[in-house]
Amino acid sequence: MDKNYAIEINGLTKSFKGMYALNGLNMHVPVGAIYGFIGENGSGKSTTEKLICGLLVPDNGEIKLFGKDYSDPGVRVRVGALIENAGCFPGSSVWTNLMMQAINLGIENPNEEIERVLKIVRMEESKQIKFKSCSLGMKQRIGIAMALLGDPALLILDEPINGLDTDGMRIMREILVDITKNYGCTVLISSHILGELEKIATHYGIIRQGKMIMEISSEEMDSRCRVFISLKTKDMDQALDILKKKFNKVKEENGYLKVYDVDEVELIVGYLMRHGHVVSEIVKNKIGLEEYYIEIMSNKGGEINE
Amino acid sequence: MNKKMSISFESPSFIKRLKGMLGVDFYRLFHTPLFYIFLIIAGIIPALVSMGFSTTDPVTGQITGSTLENIWIMIAAKEPLYVVSDIAEYANMNMVFIFGGIMVSIFIGHDYKSGYVKQLFTTHAKKQDYTLSKSISCAFAIVCMCITYLIGTVVAGIFLQASFEVNVGSLIIAILSKMIMSLGWASLYTFLNIIFRRYFGISIASSFFFGTGILIIGAAAILGNSSILNIFLYGSSVYACLSSNILTLIVCIVNSVGWFIFYNIVGTYVLNKSDVY
Q1: pTM (2 decimals)?
Q2: Domain A5-217 class?
Q3: What angle is formed at CA B70 by the lines to CA B80 and CA B208, rounded to 5 degrees?
Q4: A78 to chain B: which residues are within 8 Å by CB?
Q5: Which CATH number fits domain A226-286: 1.25.10, 3.30.410, 1.25.40, 3.30.70?
Q6: What percent of chain A has pLDDT over 70?
């Protein structure tokens, strides 16, 4: 067992009425990581998160949090979660809801602690508002504040940026980075908005049909995300044939010729010029997390890596 | 990233865990209108029921008295009557347990409806914390309802000019015994709400059904006024009557605590073995 894992899951299985939601899932979330948990709808992300939080009972497998069994009360009291929604009483104020959670956790100075988390999520001015009167973005932030109470060592966030506007997403992103940097918290975050996830995640886990198909650090992801150059010439068809003779992967897409795994613009420009083609437009690109994810998911052949 | 942190995990004691959970439940109880609404309902019930026994002057229409021979009948029957022959024998403080059941169902149902239960179960690995806390806090709420019911009864008795003659010792024991029974009833309702946690309507209906004691009344119709019925919550609640003695108190304590332990063990087992959200 590696004690540097905040979450370590081995062979986790969970079924609902005979249908497998998780089928031997393995997962390794390093301490201090922002772990982006990615997968299609119904792939088992929320089920995994609920199992970690003890809301569901696993059929089989092992869940360890910081090297201890997940049913250890000492560990679980240090877990903060935002699963599906904030889980607040709609008729009660933001403050009352947070106070209940502070009491639940046995926090000694609840007033100070609530002020602290409200400041982190930038909601100091909204504490007396009833929860039901809050906007979606505010509700998500209250959910984060709730999860942050009591100095959690692990935060589990299920789609926290769903439905947020651009500014809301930016605020949420800044909050999450702040939490990990300044409070030493490990974050497990599932999201469909991969562009946003890419900006903050230090590790990724890709789940498909209840199985982890890949776990990768952002550095590795970066190196795997392929570089490509897109360009335009006068005679695209002829230029495509010429490029195919020298480079392994070339294709025409959306009015551009795309040459993959080539880093040097000059090399392509010079090569085409020698063959009588003038490049009118050229851009160096890199495949993002989203494209990489789509590429992996389109490989339906089974597990890529575990 | 990957800064090695020394994270320590101190296991909270049972008392600390229970204190946290009870703290939330009592905070919720006192900071939401539900509890106060049911206190008022409990206070109004005896007034409404006793109005049914009032006599009025046919000329002036003014209330002149009551057909209730004694107002304390509103608290408990004269004898432990499991077989109910008229509403006067049934309509006493035991009705608080019916309304208490509905209150418990709404109280626990909102945990699930709002999703707050996720926070409770995420941070409390031991499910027994939940069942114990709900049973204790809801028992407290039902005891408070018994008190407002008592106040409502006294006020109604004064208003109806009914007789207050009673063996004070037996009356106190009866009231105390019924209050003690609140623990057992609250545990039953907590258990029912754990079983039917996904079905709010069924939770309320089942609490109402068991709260009426209809099963025991049915059994009593076959067995008669048998003391064996005292092993049930409704039986012991009926046993706490105006002829109570110290034995009544002991029976109620044993019964209530016994069911409290039973329902908490079974409720915890159910929570441990099933998906909670």
Answers
A1: 0.86
A2: alpha beta
A3: 50
A4: 7, 9
A5: 3.30.70
A6: 96
